[in-house]
Specification:
seven-stranded mixed beta sheet; 407 residues; 24% strand
Length: 407
């Protein structure tokens, strides 16, 4: 039995291994390095008796004074129960890091320590967790602990994930089904595509950034994602025709006014009901008028919400989403999320990840994502392997600043 370490595994072998591994993850795919083009990278791997048994996409951030840091997002990919393999891989990576003046190696493997629904928070972690911690400790790795805040780690330690169903429509909560019917009543339609939808999707993300006061990504970044995953990249847009809705509302208004005029004054209950309906229609018409002032009063579809997702191997990552808040009561995101799930499962995905949530499971994101019966995946967390311990301690504050700038 013999191991051989390489730092330049070719794309075909690298992706073939990652895609078929139980820890398959988009962030360890070959082309993720091309997305993160402001980092250098290595495609590392280990062969055991001429068989590839481990891979690791290593992103390299160059730092002042010729130093750097290594980062393996959701990696490396290997059998973590094989202590000998894990130790060999990191021993070899540390040798490269030393030569490269790497201050520390950061990694956050896709090991689940818990899976549960968000209404049944489970504090009893898997028995195997200690085995993994002991193995990484033998590699001189420092565990950052079971953090709960998204801000504590580069990748979220808790994610909300929808696993494949044969018929997802039947498994949705009643509340979600009702919201999707609301979207249908407003004639919300879902389309999907790639580059041709970039402009509208980017506009929706910008609206979300402005509303939430956060910086997400720009059109150039979304374009890079789609170009590097031409088979797995997709944009879903929820659209509606406000012109048609306005015309329908005006017809309904005329009918209500006529019915009110024909209703006897002593039929107070009926009159109140009709007048309530008329007020709601008038409110809709006023909102439509405001929308026309920006988009023009044309008979055309308007994009009101969007999602950008990447399918890789048997996984789907729903990476970015945006919505025009003026159309919030159209409930577009509920319908488009379900269509995204269906698309992913039809392509053979085992799950579709809606992204990170706070570990307290009481934030707005968690509550929104609970509408789709997700499973909460709790990961083991982040590890650091200091290569230059003194420099490592000095740079931890600077690292936190770097992390805040879109690692």
């Amino acid at each position: 039995m013999s191991y051989l370490f390489f730092k330049d595994i070719n794309q075909e072998k690298f992706d073939e291994f990652v895609k078929h591994h139980e820890y398959c993850n988009l962030l360890q795919s070959y082309n993720w390095a091309k997305v993160k083009n402001n980092w250098d990278h290595m495609y590392t791997g280990v062969y055991k008796d001429n068989v590839l048994v481990a891979t690791g996409l290593v992103l390299i951030k160059r730092l002042p004074l010729s130093f750097c840091m290594y980062y393996l997002p959701r990696g490396p990919i290997m059998d973590y129960k094989d202590k000998e393999l894990v130790q060999y891989y990191f021993d070899q990576l540390k040798k490269l890091a030393k030569k490269d003046h790497c201050i520390f190696i950061k990694f956050d493997p896709a090991i689940h320590v818990n899976d549960y629904d968000s209404k049944s928070y489970n504090i009893n972690r898997y028995k195997e967790t200690e085995l993994y911690l002991d193995t990484f400790k033998s590699c001189n790795a420092i565990h950052h602990g079971y953090t709960t805040s998204i801000a504590d780690t580069v990748q979220p330690r808790f994610q909300s994930n929808v696993y494949s169903y044969e018929n997802i429509d039947e498994t949705l909560p009643k509340h979600t089904k009702h919201l999707i019917k609301d979207a249908d009543r407003r004639n919300v339609q879902i389309i999907h595509g790639q580059g041709e939808l970039l402009d509208e999707f980017s506009r929706l993300v910008e609206l979300t950034e402005s509303r939430k006061g956060v910086a997400l990504r720009d059109k150039g970044y979304f374009k890079t994602l789609l170009e590097n995953y031409p088979e797995g990249g997709v944009i879903f847009l929820a659209t509606c025709n406000v012109y048609k809705l306005n015309e329908d509302a005006k017809i309904k208004k005329g009918k209500l006014e006529k019915e009110i005029a024909q209703t006897c004054g002593n039929a107070k209950k009926k009159l109140h009901r009709l007048e309530d309906q008329l007020r709601n229609v008038d409110k809709d018409i006023k909102e439509f008028k405001e929308i026309f002032s920006e988009f023009g009063q044309e008979n055309k579809d308007i994009a009101i919400a969007g999602i950008l997702s990447i399918q890789y191997g048997n996984t789907c990552e729903m990476l970015y989403a945006g919505m025009d808040e003026r159309f919030k009561k159209f409930m577009p995101q509920y319908k488009e999320y379900v269509e995204n799930f269906k698309w992913a499962f039809e392509k053979g995905c085992s799950w579709s990840n809606m992204g990170g949530v706070e570990g307290t499971l009481d934030d707005r994101l968690t509550k929104f994502k609970d509408n789709f019966n997700p499973t909460i995946n709790e990961f083991i967390g982040e590890f650091d392997i200091p290569i230059y311990p003194f420099m490592y301690r000095l740079t931890q504050k600077a690292y936190k600043i770097l992390k805040s700038k879109h690692m």
